[in-house]
Amino acid sequence: MIPVEEYKKIIGAIPILCVDLVLRDRAGRYLLVKRENEPLRGEWWVVGGRVLKGERAEAAARRKLEEEIGLTVPRLELLGLYEDFFDRNSLGIETLYHTVSIVFGGTLDDVSGIRLDAQHKEWKLAEQLPERLRIQAFRGIDP
Q: Which domains does the chain have, with CATH numbers?
């Protein structure tokens, strides 16, 4: 875990590398979680988060799956990149919060075992991804 004061300096100076997971059930619906933290607090989003130093991107994706929803996915596919800029962050400091996410996709065989962490208050299966992600992450591709 990065000490808070150090992380404040980091997010004020450089983009943060993240992973996001576009997960579908067998019917093709997307798993979305409602965020409790900034950025995007109160919005429906995909599972994901920061990559740790020394951690490979796919390992980070698998870690976030386990931490955030308590599940594993046998096969992950690299889908592309998603980049965003936020005026809010989890630390509440005034700075542009720039994230670059490596996006993986996967299929969930069974959603009955989902266990949400403290960062999310509920989950749902949706026909579409959030517009903010869909437009920027999959320009020209219909996932």
A: 4-137 (3.90.79.10)
